[in-house]
Structure formats: C-alpha cells, structure tokens
Design goal:
The chain is of the alpha+beta class. The chain is 17% helix and 27% strand. The N and C termini lie far apart (55 Å). The relative contact order is 0.21.
Length: 313
C-alpha cells in the first residue's frame, strides 16, 4: 500500500521532541562483601600496628609435693602493622552542565558525587582483597595497604610452585599451578585452622569457585521443593566438622582463591573517614574531592586460611 501524496511524516518533521526516559540504569554492581563482613577501628598514624599473643604449647604438668618451682619462660607478643592508604575520586562539573535540562537527574554534581562514592567504596574493597604488600611510600610514591592475600600464610592449600607470604603484610604470595576445585582441599584447610585454634565462619570465593562449592558431595545437587515450587541448586551455609560457614561471593577478589575467614579477626582501620570536600573554583566548573584513608587489620592470621591456585573457569 502506497503512502498518499503530501502525507506529512515524522521523517520530514522539524521540532519533534526526543523520547528519552527519565530513568538511568546503573549497570555496574557495587556490593562490597568484605567491608560488610568485618569490623572497624580507628587509626591514629600512617603505620597502624597491633599485637598478637601466643600461649606456650600444652604439655605434661605434674609438680612434686613441696617442690620449689622454677620460673617458666614468658612468650612475648608479636607486633604487626599495615600502612594506611589514601584513596580518592575527583569530580569536576561545568556550570553549564548544572543548569541545562537533563534526563534522569536534576543536579549533575550531586549525581556524580553519588556515583563516585560508590566507585570509591569498590576501590577500597579491591584494596582489601588483592595481592598488594604493604608499603610506606615516599614523597613521590603512595602508601599501600596490604590485602588479605599478604596476611594469609599459615593455613593454606596451594598448587605446585605456589608459596605462602610471610603473613605479616610485608610480602605477597607466589601463585602456583592451577588445579580443579575439590572438597578435600577445603577440609584440609579447615582442619589446619581448627588445630591452630581458629573458629572460621565464612568462605569467600569468586564466581566459578563459589559455584563449585555448591557441587561438593552432600551439597546442593539440584532438587525441587514441591510445596514451595522452588528449584534449589546452591549451598548458602556449610555445616562442617568445625562449625557452620556462610558461603559468600565476592567479585573483587582473586578468581583463583577461596578464603576461609574467622570474621572477627579482621577489621578495617580508618584514619580519615569517607568524606566530600569542595576544591577551589578556578573557572566555569565546580570540583569535589571524595576521599578515605584506611588499611586492613589482620588480628590473627593463624585463625584463617586460603585454598589457592584453583581453576577459575
């Protein structure tokens, strides 16, 4: 069917308004599981330190009646630390962009501050979970806070060629040859933690490893809950010989590792809390600085463990 002569179509029209929805969809996830899991404490210096204390090993203890006892050896504390890292985001929005009619937001500066705050929090999560050793920095280099990988030494299962860090944040582990995810690896590490006196409560893993945990023997091989009309194919809590462990997915951690945490032995020390400050106006734009100064605290690395060098796909 032909279009009648002189029919005025939208293709030729001038002045038709654009059809742009007022909704902006945020595509990037902004969850921060480690920050949600651990506690907080204050830092009062750029090198934040803490101490650990060990007891003498249990041994036979029988004393002769009337004996004059000798003095037992004293076990000194161990001093550990981490450097407070500065993280920031800077926003600049022109005066013009502030007043023009916009879709999905009325105030561009406020919207960009909201987005950058989410990005900054994700950067902190990345810092906590990655393979960075602590560094004091200098007048020309930034201070670096060590992440969990540098504080997880004693209880580990690693692939061929892999090696553990010292465990005090001063160095990072060496990656080994990857291998398939097995339940035995996790049970071995849980046993090591238990022997050291730990009470782990969380397993944190990236996507592929998280999926494999649900496939462990006795795990959530898919089954139907007829009454609720649900198909269940996941394990959220693992009831182990050493207690119940929550299984948490963290997209910001190294894909090849799963951490077994006693969550109350980890904290984030904050020297300068999350804040927004205006920067000097130098032209036709407004600037804002979002920043935080913080570091990871590992109160008892002996009560935690890692299953490393796992296949990630």
């Amino acid at each position: 069917m032909a279009v009648p002569t002189n029919t005025f179509q939208s293709h030729s029209a001038i002045g038709n308004r654009e059809d742009l929805t007022k909704v902006i969809t945020l595509l990037t996830p902004y969850d921060t599981p480690m920050q949600s899991l651990i506690g907080r404490e204050n830092a009062t210096g750029t090198l934040h330190e803490w101490q650990t204390q060990a007891l003498a090993a249990a041994a036979t203890n029988a004393v002769v009646e009337g004996d004059d006892p000798s003095t037992d050896a004293v076990t000194p504390t161990v001093r550990i630390g981490n450097y407070v890292q500065i993280l920031d985001k800077v926003i600049g929005v022109s005066n013009t962009q502030q007043w023009v009619d916009k879709a999905g937001r009325t105030n561009e500066l406020s919207e960009q501050m909201r987005l950058k705050a989410l990005e900054l929090k994700r950067d902190v999560e990345f810092m906590l979970m990655q393979n960075n050793a602590r560094s004091a920095g200098s007048s020309s280099t930034a201070r670096n806070s060590a992440g969990v990988r540098s504080y997880t030494e004693q209880n580990g299962s690693r692939g061929s060629g892999g090696s553990a860090p010292t465990g005090n944040g001063t160095d990072a582990p060496t990656d080994g040859t990857t291998r398939p995810v097995t339940e035995t690896m996790f049970l071995d590490v849980l046993q090591l933690i238990a022997v050291q006196g730990g009470y782990p409560d969380t397993v944190m893993a990236h996507a592929f490893v998280r999926r494999n945990i649900s496939a462990f023997a006795g795990g959530a091989t898919a089954y139907r809950m007829v009454e609720d009309k649900k198909l269940v194919s996941t394990v959220k809590v693992w009831e182990s010989d050493w207690g119940d462990l929550k299984i948490i997915f963290n997209r910001h951690q190294f894909e090849r590792e799963a951490f077994i945490f006693q969550s109350d032995t980890w904290r984030m020390a904050i020297g300068d809390a999350y804040k927004i400050e205006p920067l000097a106006k130098t032209g036709h734009a407004d600037k804002r600085l979002l920043s935080v100064e913080c570091c990871l605290v590992s109160l008892a690395q002996e009560h935690n463990g890692v299953v490393a060098d796992l296949n990630s796909s």
